[in-house]
Design a protein that fits this description.
This protein has 128 residues and is mostly helical. It is built from 5 helices and no strands.
């Protein structure tokens, strides 16, 4: 009897795993499709506009960094109107370019979810 229960549990786990794999695969295909659609619209004019935007926002971040050696990521990103991860990416870009040096990082508690992935891809309706 116990062996049958264990076998039944194992079968149920395998079914859940297969269902989960199907969802992940569907989300991955959707993500790749969206990326391909976005890439097909990256004409030189759009690339130029993006480079200009990076230069403008990067310049603003560099000015803020020069005026104060410490930067609160959340409030600075909010002030500029970008996401925190975008600000971190810009800071890393500026460091790679030699415009600034990141000398310290303070780590806080996470929010418990991946803020880089739209909830529409994660099966929730939070951001959809």
């Amino acid at each position: 009897m116990t062996e049958e229960r264990n076998e039944h549990k194992l079968i149920q786990e395998v079914k859940r795993l297969l269902d989960s794999e199907g969802l992940v695969t569907a989300r991955l295909v959707e993500s790749v499709t969206r990326t391909a659609q976005m890439a097909s619209t990256t004409v030189p004019e759009i690339q130029d506009l993006f480079s200009q935007w990076l230069s403008l926002i990067g310049g603003e971040v560099a000015r803020m960094a020069a005026s104060s050696p410490e930067m609160d990521i959340a409030s600075t990103a909010n002030r500029i109107g970008i996401e925190e991860s975008s600000l971190l990416s810009l800071l890393l870009m500026l460091q790679r370019e030699g415009a600034l040096s990141i000398e310290s990082v303070r780590i806080g508690k996470g929010k418990g979810k991946n803020s880089e992935i739209c909830s529409c891809l994660m099966g929730t309706e939070e951001d959809a």
